[in-house]
Amino acid sequence: MSVEPPSSGRPTGPPSGPLSGPSQPPPGGGPPSEPTGGGGGEGPEPRRPWWGSVPRVAIIATAVVAAVIIAVVLSRPDSGGTGASDGGTSTSQGEIFLQPAADTGPDPFTESTAEQSSASPVSPSPTELAPQNTVQGVQGGAPGLYGGTRNVASCDVEKQITYFEGAPDKQRAFASVVRVETSDVPAYLRSLTPVQLRMDTRVTNHGYKDGAATSYQAVLQTGTAVLVDDRGVPRVRCACGNPLSPPVAQQTAPKTTGEEWPGYDGAKVVMVTPAPEPVEVFVMCEPDGQWFERHKGDTGKKDRKTEKPDKPSPSVSVTTPTSPTDSTTSTGPPTTEPPSSETETKTETSPDSPSEPPSSESPPPPGSDTGSGTGSGTSSGTGGGTTDQAPAS
């Protein structure tokens, strides 16, 4: 009896040798179709390909999703830093933007509400070169830290409120930075006190772009009009309406960008630390050397003359910027801490001699010494601790 192959030409069992190549999925991406038709006893079911295993597909899908999430987080401009997008004047991680007193700057929240600057732009000389990764800190309630003109507000708070009333999206973004309800922004602004800086001051500046608040590290020039809270900390820059918060430490040695003003020295930049208790009255200095008091939240209508303080220069401490709790983009303190500027590596030629000594009619600038003594405070640059360096009496 002769043996003839089946008319269909299909084998009746598994192949006797190895397969010619790995199993490939059909172009449609689905599993191979089941054979059709009859025939004699078929061989065992072929081995299921790896992509047909449900557990393996789930594991691979999870890995792909995780990789996409990591890529998004690492590529965000605010991941681990305080970058801001501002169409050409942005600062990336490790950069500090220099902002002159009258300059609006990038991404303003509103038009300027600042009055003409009247504070003399004189930067004090530090009593001792600050250790690397630290800046000089001054408490917000220190007499002489802020200046201005008696009975004249450096900022028009009501105009600021009017601007926000006409731009609800900006008001909402502003509220998210200062952490108040949107409807409470007017009351918040009225609770602040208009003053002018008497020292170049490091802050985190928050701009407005594409419907949201941005943030970048900045140094505000002496004479800048700001609104301060009841602890003396700058909270609004009046030339642009931007909210401010304490400076954030950089993970690398920062570089300055922007226009330097005459007399700028990174070693003389300070940061304002909150006063230990609420400040009821700010003791301020006029350009002509006269002194006056301004109550918190007042716009100058209740200003009154006062005597020159026994210590007109506030005590200076060495401190370290940390990630503030009110920053909208920072998720935690960086692992390293920055110097206030690249210029801090320079050697001071005369620590106790200010670059521009005040005249006999005007008081010494904040943080400068009137005697020959030098402070002895130092800091290791960790933990944000401070050591006061009291000026000579």
Automatic annotation (TrEMBL):
Coiled coil: none annotated. Residues 110-137 have a biased composition (Polar residues). Residues 291-311 have a biased composition (Basic and acidic residues). This is DUF6777 domain-containing protein. Residues 1-50, 76-142, 291-393 are annotated as: Disordered. Residues 12-34, 354-367 have a biased composition (Pro residues). Pfam families: DUF6777. Residues 370-386 have a biased composition (Gly residues). InterPro entries: DUF6777 (IPR046704). Residues 137-297 form the DUF6777 domain. Residues 1-11, 313-342 have a biased composition (Low complexity).
